[in-house]
């Protein structure tokens, strides 16, 4: 069951301005990545459930967050159907992120008042998502659409809250472009999750990049 209401989650997204996202099939590695983001100031995490037995890792990771990382809002991304959304909510997901707009996912999330953020790529999809109760729309893939697309959406629909994912990096130039266009927050994955040459995660750099990105975002608000 979710620890935070959808309104609380939306507020944390708006206040912090960034949702780190990653996936790893090893629970101990996942804990270290989550702790690095938390120590860097992040208060949300989207676990992109793209591997076998991802739900088992997420369940343990959520227990760890509840016990050791107060205020950390755990969510799940890459959810593609209502059954998966229901499973992850049963494991404590506070928000559900999807690559596409699906009404079945909206229904099961709304039923439990859990925030859901669908991947949208047109104004029609965005409007439909909002009709279904979406608080914050995911613009995906963000690098294909870019900040100009956000500006175009915010013209006729200034009430729309947008979170681009894909094509977002922890640099001032990139973040200035997105927040200057009017995004509510950004989802950041591979550009934030620094690795060593051997492919292992660089936890110290993840922490420092998270802190730096959040500092830049706060300066832009």
Describe, in plain words, how this protein is organized in 3D:
The chain has 221 residues and is α/β, with parallel strands linked by helices. The chain contains 9 helices and 8 strands. The chain has helices at residues 6-16, 27-39, 54-68, 82-90, 103-111, 123-131, 142-154, 172-181, 203-220, and strands at 18-22, 44-48, 73-77, 95-98, 115-120, 137-139, 162-164, 186-188. The radius of gyration is 16 Å and the shape is globular. It starts with 5 loop residues before the first helix and ends with a helix.
Q: What descriptive keywords fit this protein?
A:
221 residues, alpha/beta, 4-stranded parallel sheet, 9 helices, 8 strands, globular
Proportion of beta-strand residues: 15-25%
Please estimate the helix content.
40-55%
| Global structural class | alpha/beta
Number of helices: 9
Gyration radius from CA atoms, angstroms: 16 Å
For the biggest β-sheet, the strand order reads 3-2-1-8
Largest sheet: 4 strands, parallel
Q: Tell me, what's the shape?
A: globular
Low-confidence stretches: none
Output mean pLDDT. 97
Order of helices and strands: HEHEHEHEHEHEHEHEH
Number of strands: 8
Distance N to C terminus:
32 Å
Please give a quick description of this structure.
The protein has helices at 6-16, 27-39, 54-68, 82-90, 103-111, 123-131, 142-154, 172-181, 203-220, and strands spanning 18-22, 44-48, 73-77, 95-98, 115-120, 137-139, 162-164, 186-188.
